[in-house]
Amino acid sequence: MGRVEGDKIIIKIETPCEKFKELTCLEFPLEELPENQSNLALEMEKQTDCSLACTRECALDCTRKCMIPHAVFNVCSIERELAEMPILESEEYTISELQ
Predict the structure, then answer these.
(1) For the sheet containing 26-29, what is the strand order?
(2) How many structural domains is the chain composed of?
(3) Please, are residues 12 and 25 in contact by the beta-carbon 8 Å criterion?
(4) N or C terminus: fewer CB in 10 A for the chain?
(5) Cβ neighbour number for residue 63 with a 10 Å cutoff
(6) Containing structural domain, residue 44
(7) Which of 17-21, 44-48, 64-68 tops mean pLDDT?
């Protein structure tokens, strides 16, 4: 799950993976988001203080490549796009609230 708070994107990860299980959230500056998944993975490794390389002990059988950075990158991309969208355009997703 992701949301924009001020100038940051806050991402909460719910997973059985031991590497991320205890992590409450990741934070990325909205204006300085990593441009690609490799840079994002490096930033995530800094924030989690562990390698994202999957191991045999990984709770998710993720076929030797951690899928969480890909999911986080997608959430960041979506949240950045929504944050840049004028408010009236973003309201179309919740038009029932306007009535």
Answers:
(1) 2-5, 8-11, 26-29
(2) 1
(3) yes
(4) C
(5) 9
(6) 2-98
(7) 44-48
